[in-house]
Amino acid sequence: MADLIVDALNYVGIIAFAVSGALKAGEKDLDLLGFLVLGYSTALAGGIIRDLILGIVPPTNITSLPYQLAAIGASAFTFALYDKVSKYRDVVLYPDALGLGAFAAIGADIALKRGLNPLGVAAMAAITAAGGGVVRDVLAAEIPLVLRKEIYATAAAIGGLVYLSLYYIEGREVALLGTIISVVALRLLSLRYGWELPRLKRRAASPGA
Amino acid sequence: MADLIVDALNYVGIIAFAVSGALKAGEKDLDLLGFLVLGYSTALAGGIIRDLILGIVPPTNITSLPYQLAAIGASAFTFALYDKVSKYRDVVLYPDALGLGAFAAIGADIALKRGLNPLGVAAMAAITAAGGGVVRDVLAAEIPLVLRKEIYATAAAIGGLVYLSLYYIEGREVALLGTIISVVALRLLSLRYGWELPRLKRRAASPGA
Amino acid sequence: MADLIVDALNYVGIIAFAVSGALKAGEKDLDLLGFLVLGYSTALAGGIIRDLILGIVPPTNITSLPYQLAAIGASAFTFALYDKVSKYRDVVLYPDALGLGAFAAIGADIALKRGLNPLGVAAMAAITAAGGGVVRDVLAAEIPLVLRKEIYATAAAIGGLVYLSLYYIEGREVALLGTIISVVALRLLSLRYGWELPRLKRRAASPGA
């Protein structure tokens, strides 16, 4: 049951992430291939990097035709209906949050199976969930958004620790669902109330740096 | 026979790609190491990424001394004779197209051997052929050229599908040669006639994006 | 004995590299997560990339809790005391040089064990030592410093060749220590005397490039 929910939300995430990548391609005036590559990368690169680190080759996101078709389909759809999709940009934040939760749960689940330590589990949850966005921003020649603002990768990393705790207390199914609920709640609350991570009070002067 | 041709064109590609990386290093005013790293990466990083994804470690491009020497030699040559090489920049497009075809054929060939699905085969052809150029542009802090203009990675991806079709109809040898011919033809025709992939009609206004 | 020294200097390097990543995060006005990710990446990404290329998965830097805690601790410390640490930026160059030497020795040692050719050993020494800094700069949307100026990755690559030569003449222990001494000496001398790699005499005009 939990696996079914995770799998369904995984598709929600792939589609929402691909849309976010394709919207970035539109901002940067890329061509159709740019839309497909940025959509594909945003949706699937986090899981690919996680699998490479854990020694799962070829990575699941490369061997799964349905995942690839979902990512490419959503990217092509965004290209075709760019103005409409762009107008509903804020609505995409909700499925995006669901995907963030599902990706974090999946990443933590696989990392624990492979015997990583707690920091490794948190890192794999964050990389699965936010790695695609980092690749998207690097390809767009920008500093990754997740390093600059909003509670995003942090929510996923905390989700990894929630997974670990629940796993040993209540078992895998509860851990999966509890992770998703925690991450989605944390993400939506942070958006609603404008929570941000701390940053330096005054920027230190760094002449010529 | 087909393998011999592929191998010869592979060297043509390594040298042409390394030159393109070294020319980018010159544009960015990098030092000698910058020339070598950008030349090496442009020539060999696509194949390295492909091998990591397919679980071939250490990657062939790291264990093959001749490939490495060809890439480093061509980069050093470009450094030494920068003004001359730079003047013949447009001539390099022809060996570059041959390399694109050979790299696409090699990528598709390995991907099929490893049992990837058709989308995976097309992706591996494109990554082998265009991944090095993406790494070059990321290291130069630019949006990768292949995402913005020209038929380049797209030609390689189509080459992957040509390989697949020919492989089942005519066998591996014909598939290798047919892929190279298709990719080179598509690339040169697109250069000749200025073919581009479609892009958004009018750029959507994205204030502050 | 040599292993003990290498291990101690490895921690010196992790801490110095993490500080350098966190200082870059401050320059770019990133949030706390940005500090942790840039510190972590600068300290550990070089070794992670090396391990992925050599097929060591999960990479040691992911499975070692002490390494991760050292990197994260140094990054958080830099965040908390940014102005103070920033003021001693030049002092960090000394532990950074020690880390450069230790990372190069470790990279060459592992690469030789895995049977790489001499160019591969030099490349693994350089990637272990300078790969983290490249990731730091790519995440900061800048052209990697090591490609533009100073003798840094070059010192590590030369260290890889020193390792190889000493290994066959004097054995592994001498090779480890000799590599560290050579790299640290070369790095500090280059800083002291302002040595740079050669670059193009006059920048070739590259209109519209």
Automatic annotation (TrEMBL), chains A, B, C:
Subcellular location: Cell membrane
Domain Glycine transporter: 8-82, 95-167
Transmembrane segments: 6-25, 32-53, 65-82, 91-112, 118-139, 151-169, 175-195
Alphabetized InterPro entries for the sequence: Gly_transporter
Location (main, coarse): membrane
Pfam families found in the cross-reference section: Gly_transporter
Topological relation to the membrane, as annotated: Multi-pass membrane protein
Record GO cellular component, one term: plasma membrane
Keywords from the named record: Cell membrane, Membrane, Transmembrane, Transmembrane helix
Protein name, UniProt field: Glycine transporter domain-containing protein
